[in-house]
Specification:
With 442 residues, this protein is of the alpha/beta class. It has 18 helices and 15 strands. It has a six-stranded parallel β-sheet with strand order 2-13-12-11-14-15, sandwiched between helices. It has a five-stranded parallel β-sheet with strand order 1-4-3-5-6, sandwiched between helices. The chain has a four-stranded parallel β-sheet with strand order 8-7-9-10, with helices on both faces.
């Protein structure tokens, strides 16, 4: 039932407040109103199941049961890099030929699988049934199954479901679907509070929590929490701030419960983290002098750590293939803090409202593209001849063979890159491939 033990299953995708950060002089327009090249064609992305890799590490009493094929099982195990004898908190209920032929009762089989799983793993408090391309093709209703199983196992175990199918989504949307499924479970509250939305590494969450506490903001919740018993409350006096740019469904679900979004840059680099914290502090009425006293020293350290890499990256041209939806804030960080030139910033989906502060700070000449037609984008990439290409694993090796330096976009999701203390590490992630290329050319 761990990484190398897939379960056999034999049936078998408002209101806002506070000020938007302003561009520097001469950058008033940025890319906020720039035309967007929208493409629909062949894509090179992972599916939403990949989000389980970081979600199962974050929510420590949750288990993710994928209802899918052997291909689904191999994908997650390969992405996670888990040893075969480990006991991670995910598994795959494999749909077999008899399932596709309709020769068995899917719900009875799923009930048996869940019963065995919960008997073996009594530490599970939340069980996610995760849909896949195969389960959606055969029209298996996992929402009804989750409701039925929750009635059976509550209060010991809460059973929820979401789709990780890659038919029409990219891999970070798996997190969005997972968090959106948690929103109806959040307790109601009328007291003022701040909610940070988006999976953050524990070390980053701890850093942000300490800063908020030092500012006097005590009622701070994080979604997802480390433990399902710590689900943050939500209500009309809840202000939430996104830590990740790919949480559109989660944001809508929170707003349906009365929460109000705080627009801000995303917390990447010294500038992004400072603006992100300032937006939250302003919304919660923190004194500006106190804010500067808390944030100033950490921001200065971050700027110093990032500046080490500017001489090597300044003036370098960078091209983003669409993969994670992190592309616009990453391009803003690289452009403004490291002096790089974003040639094209491709993203699977461009949420103009959530990304408005980011787009305003991108160079006006930057080309924005949404969606993907991989052959056309490859042609544009070859014509641009950038110094660095950010892309998925499927494109990296061919582009490296052609002489282009590449950065795996998935590494930017798996690594702790948010916050002041990680700003230098984030810059280094883009410096490494160029340094490696320079060494190979000697």
């Amino acid at each position: 039932m761990g990484a190398g033990h897939s379960i056999r299953f034999r049936v078998s995708g408002a209101r806002v407040m506070t000020a938007i950060p302003q561009p520097l002089p001469g950058e008033q327009s940025g890319c906020h109103s720039a035309p967007v090249l929208r493409e629909r064609g062949q894509r090179e992305v992972f599916c939403g199941l990949t989000g389980i890799v970081w979600l199962h590490r974050k929510i420590q009493d949750a288990f993710f049961l994928v209802v899918g094929s052997r291909t689904c099982a191999h994908l997650i195990q390969s992405a996670a890099g888990v040893m075969i004898f480990a006991e991670p908190r995910f598994a795959t209920a494999i749909i077999e030929e008899r399932d596709l032929a309709g020769l068995a009762d899917a719900n009875e089989e799923l009930d048996r699988v869940v019963a065995r799983l919960l008997e073996r793993r009594p530490d599970i408090k939340v069980l996610f049934l995760v849909g896949s391309c195969p389960s959606e093709v055969i029209k298996l209703d996992l929402s009804r199954a989750a409701e039925r199983l929750s009635q059976r196992y509550l209060p010991q175990v809460r059973v929820l479901n979401y789709s990780g199918s890659g038919i029409e989504t990219t891999f970070t949307q798996g997190e969005d679907a997972c968090l959106a499924s948690l929103v109806p479970e959040l307790p109601s509250a009328a007291e003022p509070s701040l909610m940070v939305v988006g999976t953050l590494a524990d070390v980053v969450e701890d850093q942000f929590r300490r800063m908020f506490q030092a500012m006097g903001i005590g009622a701070v919740g994080f979604l997802p929490p480390r433990n399902s018993a710590a689900l943050p409350p939500v209500g009309p006096n809840t202000r939430y701030i996104l830590a990740q740019p790919f949480l559109g469904d989660t944001a809508r679900a929170l707003e349906s419960r009365g929460a109000i979004r705080i627009p801000a840059l995303f917390p990447l680099g010294a500038e992004g983290t400072s603006q992100w914290l300032q937006a939250a502090a302003t919304a919660l009425g923190v004194d500006p002098t106190l804010f500067e006293r808390v944030v100033g020293p950490a921001c200065a350290r971050a700027r110093k750590s990032v500046a080490r890499y500017r001489p090597a990256l300044e003036g370098r041209r960078i091209f983003f293939f669409p993969d994670s939806q992190l592309e616009p804030p990453l391009a803003r960080f690289l452009s403004r803090e490291l002096g790089m030139q974003p040639v094209e910033v491709g993203t699977p989906f461009l949420h103009r409202e959530h990304l408005a502060p980011e787009l305003a700070l991108l160079p006006a000449e930057t080309r924005l593209s949404e969606g993907q037609d991989v052959e056309r984008q490859l042609d544009r990439c070859h014509a641009a001849d950038p110094d660095l290409v950010v892309c998925g694993l499927g494109l990296a090796n061919p582009l490296e063979a052609e002489g282009l330096a590449t950065k795996w976009s998935i590494e930017l999701v798996f690594s702790p890159i948010q916050g002041f203390e990680q700003a230098g590490d984030l810059a280094e992630l883009f410096h490494r491939p160029l340094e490696r290329r320079a060494r190979l050319e000697v």
